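Write out the 3D structure for:
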Amino acid sequence: MSAPDLDAVTLEVIWNRMISIVDEAAKAIVRTSFSTLSNEANDFACVLTDASGQLLAQNSGSIPSFIGTLPATVRHFLAEFGADGLHPGDVLCTNNPWQGTGHLNDCSIVRPIFRDGVLVAFAATASHMPDIGGRIRSVEAREVFEEGFHIPLMKIFNAGEADRTFFRLLRTQVRTPDQTEGDIHAQITANHLIEARLLAMLAEYGLADLTALSEELNGRTEAAMRAAIAEVPDGRYRYAMRTDGLSAEAPFDFALELTIDGDGARFDFAGTSPAQARSINCPFCYTYAMSAYALKCALLPEVPNNSGLLRPIEVLAPENSLLNPLPPAPVGSRASTGHYVPVLAFGALA
C-alpha cells in the first residue's frame, strides 16, 4: 500500500499513530531517565523522521527549540556516514552546538531504523544532560572548549556493540557519571521503542517504507503553512529591541526584518550585535528553530509539527553575530539571547 492509496481518514489515523509512538517514547524517557532534567523538567524531545531526515512526528510535550534542530541533526548524520554507512543496531550521538541543539549540554541520540535490510526511518531524541563537564552553567567561558565534553558526530553503538571507550571517556569528563550515562541510555531505550512500534505499524498497514507517506503528510502541512502565510499582507515588517549588555557602555541590539512575499516568509536578523567573548551566543540552528516556532505559533498552531511547516521559511543572520556565532564561540547559555527571537517575530508581525 502506498500513501496515495490511503484515504484521508486512514492518513489521519496513521499520523496520529506516529505521534502516539513518539509520545510513548517520551514517557519511556520520563520513567527511565536518571536526572530530574528529563523526568521533571521535560527538557527533551523525541522525533520520528523518514529515511532522508524529514520530520514526520514530534512528541506533544517537546520544547520549541527542538522543532527545527533535531531533524537537522539527523541529516547531519546522514551526510557524515551516508545511508550505506549505517547498519541495524547503530546508535549515533553528538552534542556539537552547531550540528545539534545549540550547546554542549544537549545530547542528540539517533537510531537508524531498517526494515528487511532497507533504511526506512530514524528515531531521534535530544535531552539536556545533568552535567557535561566544563564550567558549571557559567557565561564566563571565552571559547566552546571551556564549556564541556564535546562529542562529534559519531557512533556510540556499532551494529549493536557499545563503544566502551566512548562511555569511559564520558564518565571521566563529567561530574555526574551515573546520571549522565543513565540519561543517554534512557534516550537509547526510547529510540528502540520507536523502532519497534514503527515496524509494527508498517507491517499492519502494508507499507514497505515511509517515503510516499512522508511526501503526502509533509506536502499537506507545507500547503497549509503556505496558505496561512499568504493570509498575511505582503510587506517588510521590522522590529528591533535593545537589552542590557555585558557593561553599561555596550548594550545589545536585536533586529529583525520579516518579509512576507506571497506564501513564503524570510527572517533577516541583520543589525543584531556581534558575537561576544562570553557564553551567550546563539548558534544559527537554534535561531532558525525559534524563528519557525514563532511563525507557527502565530499562524498555524493547531497542526502537529513536521518538516512541511519549515519549508516556506527562510532565515538569515549575519555571521559572527549574537544569533549566528561561528566556532569556537562560547554558546553554553545560548537561550539567553535565542529566547528573544520569538519576541522579535511577534513584534514584527504586530
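Residues 25 and 190 are 5 Å apart (CA to CA).
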